[in-house]
Design a protein that fits this description.
Blueprint: H1 12-34, H2 65-78
Helix pairs in contact: 1-2
């Protein structure tokens, strides 16, 4: 396949998606901090049936600022 500017790995639409994901995860982290980590109740809790509800939302909930930073930086760099 020939090189085409529309097939660039950093097309504006891909960058927009990464920025939206960054914004959503960051907003949820700020809300989680301001509510005293209330959203952490929706995380995965091992060995409990109710803990399974956290599987779909677990990529968006972090246990600490360090956890958030260690996930968001690679997400933005490698996306």
């Amino acid at each position: 396949m020939k090189y085409s500017p529309t097939h660039s790995s950093h097309s504006p639409s891909k960058v927009k998606v990464v920025l939206w994901v960054f914004a959503i995860i960051t907003a949820l982290e700020v809300i989680n901090i301001l509510t005293g980590r209330f959203l952490s109740h929706y995380a995965i809790f091992p060995r409990t049936l109710n803990g399974l509800y956290g599987i779909p939302v677990s990529p968006f909930i972090h246990g600490s600022i360090a956890h958030y930073a260690s996930n968001i930086v690679p997400l933005c760099i490698f996306s």
